[in-house]
Design goal:
Elements lengths: L5 H13 L10 E4 L5 H8 L6 E3 L3 H13 L11 E3 L5 H5 L14 H8 L9 E10 L6 H11 L3 E12 L6 H8 L5 E4 L2 H10 L2 H4 L4 E4 L2 H9 L4 E4 L6 H15 L1 H4 L3
Parallel strand pairs: 2-3, 2-4, 4-5, 6-7, 7-8
Antiparallel strand pairs: 1-5
Helix pairs in contact: 1-11
């Protein structure tokens, strides 16, 4: 079962199918447009004030540049800015004819911090951080921690809401929730902390999902899932792409029951 938003779930589904799995989509969160882009528009009108733009998601990249286009602003306005992107998210920039100046080896906000910390004159530089506005679940600590770490480097940080992440109503998932309760799901794949929080608002894990393996897309999501009470069994070591996540899930089941799950 995949709890990622549909825009991400399609890519994870393809990777899982390639490993022989049968993905069932139950997006626990949805990403959509903000009702009010005023704060983002103000930032876009003052791009000359920033030295860096740090994207933490593909959705942030897509919405940021779509809104630039809607305002008929030239991408040349960010020519003086250095762009940070994480892992495969950097590929999204190419759709707008751009490329990242900083792609950390560790595909996470902490990876960005590690690289920026090595720049001798980083203190005093201004950085724009387009992030989601979170509704219906507690905001995960990833973005707040990222902003705090940037500030501790001495950077001037402007966090700006760029798109909306909201919890999904469990009433949409009568069939999917029934499958979980009936023990028909072998694993649940979480790609973010917000998904875990929203999922736990839909289900009582101990009562309904005891036989499911819990898989997390990287150590940060895994750590937060465990704080929320989930027993995580699968953590992707390669969390730069969903291919690595799918491989970790497949390897877990092959190791658990090779006669049942081996492709051979």
């Amino acid at each position: 079962m995949i709890t990622a938003p549909r825009s991400y779930a399609a890519r994870l589904s393809q990777a899982l199918i390639a490993q022989g799995a049968l993905p069932i989509l139950m997006p626990a969160i949805a990403t959509c447009h903000l009702e009010n882009f005023t704060e983002l528009y103000v930032a876009l009108e003052h791009l000359d004030q920033y030295d860096w733009i740090a994207f933490t998601s593909r959705n942030g990249i897509e919405t940021f540049f779509e809104q630039m286009q809607s305002l008929e602003l030239s991408f040349s306005l960010i020519g003086h800015c250095k762009i940070c992107a994480i892992g495969k998210d950097a590929e999204k920039l190419t759709e707008f004819g751009l490329k990242a100046d900083l792609i950390p080896d560790e595909p996470s906000p902490q990876g960005v911090i590690a690289v920026l910390a090595k720049i001798s004159d980083i203190a005093g530089q201004a950085i724009l951080v387009p992030v989601p506005e979170v509704v219906g679940v507690p905001e995960p600590d990833v973005v707040p921690n990222f902003v705090t770490d940037l500030q501790q480097l001495g950077m001037i940080v402007h966090r700006v809401p760029t798109y909306l992440t909201r919890a999904v109503d469990k009433a949409l998932y009568t069939v999917e929730l029934a499958l979980l309760k009936q023990g028909q799901i072998d694993a649940i794949a979480f790609s973010s902390t917000a998904e875990v929080s929203s999922f736990l608002q839909m289900m009582e894990f101990e009562a309904d999902c005891q036989n499911c393996a819990i898989a997390c897309f990287g150590p940060y999501t895994a750590a937060n899932a465990e704080k929320l009470g989930l027993p995580v069994q699968i953590v992707a070591a390669d969390f730069s792409s969903f291919a690595g996540f799918a491989e970790a899930i497949a390897r877990f089941f092959v190791d658990q029951a090779p006669e049942k799950f081996s492709k051979s």
